[in-house]
Design brief:
single chain; 173 residues; 40% helix
Length: 173
Amino acid sequence: MPLFRLFALALVGLGLGACAADRDPPPGQPTFYDSMAKANVEVDVASAASMISGYRQNNGLGAVTADPELTRLAMAHTRTMVARDKLDHNLGKPFPQRIKESGYDATAAVENISAGYHTLAEAFSGWRESAPHRANMLHKGVTRLGIAAVYAPNSKYKVFWTLILAAPDDKPR
């Protein structure tokens, strides 16, 4: 059975167990079900790269790998959204300007943001069901990914997310 189909079945199971969302996952449960609605919890970037790569491959596209610099940029924007308790691509500076000013040399870069999803599986599902977010995850040519989730206990959202996908310009200068 293809990985995506197994993941889809797992998401159906997640929907049936929604009342248990605030409990700790059982031992051995995949990290994409870990709740980010807790202090000092970090999203498993490798698991996110694997999940999104599987989705891309099921749609005829190449895999993405985790990129520490993109993850740093995703974390910075997520913290900005938490600090202002607002979901917005343009807080601080617009996304294209943030990428350019960071020094990350990309031939393409896209960003998904969200809030209110407690797990990576929920955030991924929400992005997949939204046409603009899905288009970003299926953007041709991107090869790198950075992702961050930050717990905001005083926000109605509880968790803010940023996903950045990019194609670094590897040409020699």
